[in-house]
Specification:
Length: 263
């Protein structure tokens, strides 16, 4: 019997949301603070957002983060989708257990261990740490998230649609690109957005796999916070929060648009 939410449940729910979102709301609020003191409200101002444009180090770090996120998310989407197809379509092949373990391992492995292992890998291959080693590292764990999301969609996919297309003369490749891919597109897009978001805000793995010439925005924020929190840091954080929120809304709108399309 559904008795509804009790007052105690509502109170716990409110406290939980307050614990999660009040600090974020304070960061956003004080990013518009005219005072240089973080905890003292000095009036509404956009000064700290304008000062970000004059901070070339922050602008360069933001550009590097966006480039790495876009490239690694695109590569993760392709590799993760292929991995999901292998898991869902090829049955119990030899090495499936090891392959599945390699897919799931980065999801549960501590980021410090993964960052250290990637660092040792790059050192053993004598690769100079920088933009491309960072991109490879983000692709490595981003593809795992994409594979999980796409595999969940393929698990309930009606393969009779593909069989009907091939009975009508379509090749397996044409059947995939014209039938399968459009139907699983929401999960593919969701995987891309997830990989992009994870890459954009990663700090631990980036600190192991990048070099002096490729400082990401989270690393830049950390280096400035060590000298003290300023309203400029709040402004950067607010922009990152807005970017992630925009990606979530975009993903929801795209998924809703695909659901409205006739099959």
């Amino acid at each position: 019997m559904n008795r509804g939410l009790r007052p105690a449940h509502v109170a716990v729910l409110i406290l939980g949301f307050a614990f999660l979102y009040i600090p974020i709301a304070l960061v956003v609020l004080y990013s518009f603070n005219a005072s240089r003191l973080v905890t003292v409200w000095g009036g509404f101002s956009l000064h700290w957002y304008a000062s970000l444009l004059d901070n070339q180090q922050v602008v360069d770090s933001a550009w590097i983060s966006l480039q790495v996120a876009l490239i690694s998310a695109a590569a993760s989407t392709v590799l993760g989708t292929l991995a999901a197809i292998v898991l869902s379509r090829f049955g119990r092949f030899r090495g499936r257990l090891a392959f599945s373990a390699l897919i799931y391992a980065p999801l549960v492995m501590p980021e410090v261990i993964m960052g250290l292992s990637l660092l040792l890998l790059f050192v053993s291959f004598d690769l100079d740490r920088g933009f491309w080693t960072l991109t490879l590292a983000h692709t490595t764990f981003g593809m795992c998230f994409v594979a999980i999301v796409v595999h969940a969609r393929l698990a309930g996919f009606d393969r009779s649609l593909e069989e009907a297309a091939m009975d009508l003369g379509a090749s397996p490749a044409a059947s995939f690109f014209q039938i399968t891919l459009p139907l699983i597109a929401p999960s593919v897009i969701a995987g891309f957005l997830l990989a992009f978001t994870i890459s954009l805000d990663d700090f631990v793995i980036a600190s192991f796999t990048t070099g002096p010439g490729a400082t990401t925005l989270p690393m830049r924020i950390y280096s400035q916070v060590r000298l003290g929190v300023t309203p400029e840091i709040n402004a950067i954080s607010t922009l990152m929060i807005g970017t992630v929120a925009l990606l979530v809304v975009t993903g929801l709108l795209i998924a809703r648009g695909f659901r409205r399309q006739p099959v």
